[in-house]
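User: I'm writing a tutorial on reading structure tokens. Could you give me a worked example: one chain, its sequence, then its tokens, then a sentence or two explaining what the tokens reveal?
Assistant: Sure. Here is the example chain.
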Amino acid sequence: MKVIAFAGEPNTGKSSWINKLAKSKLMTGNWGGVTVEKKEALLLWKQIELHLVDLPGVTGFHGQTDEERITETYLQKEHPDCIVMVMDGCHLKSSLRLCIKIRNFQIPMVGLINFKDEADKNGIHIELEKLSRRLSIPVMYGSSFDDEIREEVLDQIIRQSNKQVTYRPLLNPMADRIFEQYARFHPMKQAIELFEEHHADTALDELESAVNSCMRYCTGNLQQCNDKTIKMDTFLLQKGKGVFLCALLSMFYLMLIAGLKLSEGCTFFSEFVFRVLLDVFSSSFPESISLYCEYVLLSGIGTLFGFVPLLFVLHLFHAVIEESGLMARLALLMDHIMRMFHLTGKSFLSFLIAHGCNVPAVIHSTSLENEAIRKKTALLIPFCCCSARFAVLISFVNLIFRKKKMILLLIGYSAGLFVILVLSLCMNWIKNFQVPSQTIIQLPSYRALQWKTLFMKTGYQCLDYIQKIVYVLFLTLSGLWLLMNIEIHGTSLIESFSKSVSFLFAPLGFGKHWIYIASLFPGLIAKEASFGALMMLQSISNASLSSEYSINLSYLIYLMTTVPCIMTLSALKQRYGRAFAVKSGLLSLCISTVFTWMMYQFIILF
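And here are its predicted structure tokens:
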């Protein structure tokens, strides 16, 4: 098996290329001893097994961040068979600077210049043969969206793997004569280290000179990409930041309204289809099977199918601002505001991702500045209203609250955010959770949206949701159905258990409604299961939902802030350890209980 390391600056498309080459999703984990995410993939090419490793994005090797230490240590100690240096075709100068530094590790390399489509639009032309000769490594040019170059890249990687290489530093004649004194008595890698140590100023000047000599083979309007980015950032981040934020909020609001309208139609259609199918086949099955299909499939699962369009719209919104480069700008604008609550702009980015799903947000939190802010952000992520909770929120509001839907949606949606901000202020008193004094947010270039890729990415996320409905909810609600049909002294097992623990929820208002309590437990498996369980239990038991706004609002707030689903806890365990996941679950349980009680006491005053 050959180990291939993908190196490069942040946002150069390393992960996209690995996905393209391996034709699979990346496997994720953690680098040893830290919570920085590790991405890997395996593939078999021409009877040779390749292990692709995505190294953290770095701009240099100063040892100041976990990412820099991980990348440098990996290249020094693991010594992969080949390094694929992924570079940005629109901002080649900084990528070449890193490429020249990585050459010093004396590991076989392949240069892969990305974003060819964008560079072509800006009239940038790169003379690959001359650049390859200058760097002494094969350099290829393409885009991760281009299928034609895949085989060529893999073949080149195979040819370079385990190849004996000696990369001399790119020096002018005078500096090269000085370097020759070290190279005569030491191996190349050690000679370069000694030269840089004893002639630090000369080495820095020579690095810039080498980069400039490579840039001679890049022609066209090289500054155009930077100029566009600078002009747009000058407006969006300085003069028009208010317009930028309002535009994003308006875009989110309009997409939310569109998603709601589509979901209403999809809900009606899915219920109609389920009802027709049930009527057609009910005569062919025993009554018990027909009842099972009606309560579990129609009342429980069928209702949640209608919210696929809404989730599609929400995931599409996140994908658009992420792929266009706007998400990092939003984090930068929010950094000042978040620091008022002892968080950072990057933390806000994690919370924004969490509104799609908590699991990738937990993964994203591992890329934050230091251990303290990572763990603080990870503890707060479960309070965000993910898309699963949002589906429950929409369903419950449509069912119970006929008026002022948008106001109630905003209350339910922002309840978790309010808890996050208050809890963060309190956590700042704990030394281990104090926020760093400054944050560095690297702004990627603005990217033209690839709508095919966006829709495919969003489609996969919605497909995961549908699979969750089909598999997880089916098993969960089927188990709940069995508990409803197992009776003790004329009362179902789930009803007896819910009533026995009702005193725990009595202070929250909904303790006297056992179906509310029973519907909370399936939510530990998947939050969508709570509403499905509520509908199924209501249909089976003929128990009515409360008509009191205070009780319904209390139940809704508790559901929006209580213990996250098992997948989120599993992600926390994988990234931060078992003890941390347990602490997160207990914290969510305690905070949601206290917050819901306070809100309920406030509501009943009016």
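What the tokens reveal: The radius of gyration is 28 Å. Residues 2-221 form a domain with the Rossmann fold fold (CATH 3.40.50.300).
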